[in-house]
Design a protein that fits this description.
The chain is of the alpha+beta class. The protein has helices spanning about 5-20, 65-80, 100-120, 175-180, 185-190, 205-215, 230-235, 240-250, 260-270; strands at about 25-30, 35, 45-55, 85-95, 120-130, 135-145, 160-165, 195-200, 220-225, 255-260, 275-285, 290, 300. The protein binds adenosine-5'-diphosphate and magnesium ion.
Length: about 300
């Protein structure tokens, strides 16, 4: 890759790459002061942003530029998935560490673009900054709700089954970079059942379930034995049990949702997804949050998980 001199050379390079691509909803892409996206039918726009920091969301020592670019979009796709929405268009902001050179930026954008293509998302703009500070990347993603509306965190009802896709824990071993955002799965579920509440697991199962419970003003009993524990949670080191990893590790990016028991049973009988769906517990009217163990004993379900602290 030849070395580019400045931000405009990088933007030109990106624009030439994406110039031939056409997206039905994009009226104006890279090159003007804003992008323009068509909203032909009355629909609800979904808008989300994530900022990724070296040493927190990735480590430049352990991830390639392509992987980081991919993840920067993937985490936003996961948020649109959590609303059971369709992603449309993204803008990316970068603060590039000058010492990394232009090829690093190109690889980052290639990684991002590749995932964007896979999900029919148009990369329609961004902001390029080059400085002597640390490398930061942020993606903002625009999507839209389907005809059935966006699925919120606030709709869980007493008696609902609590369900989760995939398996949980130990994502730091690699899944946090390579996970597949559950966009298609969420849309499929939204077609097939009445999703009462949904969230993507970014902070950890225990913490993210609490977000649903708090927003819905309900409680829950989770069956410890039923939680699908990933292979990397079982092999993770550091003194925590596999169950603790599954409950507390962040960045699984699986879907956590609640449905009424009839819908839940239908999903278990004929899973319409390519990924597993597991019932892990039930929503209760009583506000308490319990973990029920194999012995029959209960312990409090504590929302331990990742959080940024001042
Ligand atoms: P402005 O000064 O009006 O904000 P810029 O000079 O920053 O515009 O950017 C020029 C065009 O290039 C804009 O359309 C912007 O969205 C796009 N752009 C800038 N950086 C990126 C990037 N990293 N990825 C994609 N598009 C970008
Ligand atoms: Mg401008």
């Amino acid at each position: 890759v030849s070395t580019l001199s400045d931000e405009f050379a990088l933007i030109d390079w990106l624009r030439r790459r994406s110039g031939a691509k056409r997206h039905g909803r994009v009226n104006l892409s890279i090159g003007d002061d804003t992008a323009a996206i068509a909203f032909p039918e009355p629909s609800e726009a979904l808008l989300t942003v994530d900022v990724l920091l070296d040493g927190v969301h990735f480590s430049r020592a352990k991830a390639t530029a392509r992987e980081i670019g991919r993840k920067a979009l993937a985490v936003n796709l996961s948020d649109i998935a959590a609303m059971a929405g369709r992603p449309l268009a993204a803008v990316v902001g970068v603060a590039l560490d000058r010492t990394l050179g232009s090829s690093y930026a190109q690889e980052l954008l290639e990684g991002l673009e590749r995932l964007a293509d896979q999900y029919d998302v148009a990369l329609v703009g961004g902001d390029t900054n080059i400085w002597n500070g640390p490398f930061v990347v942020s993606v903002t993603l625009l999507g839209e709700a389907t005809e059935r509306g966006a699925v919120r965190r606030s709709g869980a009802r007493p008696g609902d089954w609590i369900m989760v896709t995939g398996s949980l824990g130990g994502s730091l071993a690699g899944k946090h970079l390579h996970f597949e955002p559950r966009v298609r799965e969420a849309l499929r579920l939204h077609e097939q059942v009445d999703l009462h509440a949904m969230i993507d697991i970014s902070d950890g199962l225990a913490a993210d379930l609490h977000h649903i419970l708090d927003e819905s003003h309900v409680g829950a009993t989770v069956d410890a034995e039923a939680i699908p524990i990933s292979e990397s949670a079982r092999t993770a080191t550091g003194g925590q049990s596999a169950l603790e990893h599954a409950l507390e590790d962040g960045e699984d990016f699986e879907l956590l949702f609640t449905v009424d028991p009839q819908d839940g049973a239908r999903l278990l009988q004929g899973n319409p997804l390519h990924v597993s769906v597991t019932r892990i517990g039930q929503i209760t009217e009583e506000m308490a949050r319990h973990l029920r163990h194999a012995s029959g004993q209960h312990s409090p379900l504590i929302p331990t998980g990742w959080r940024h602290t001042f």
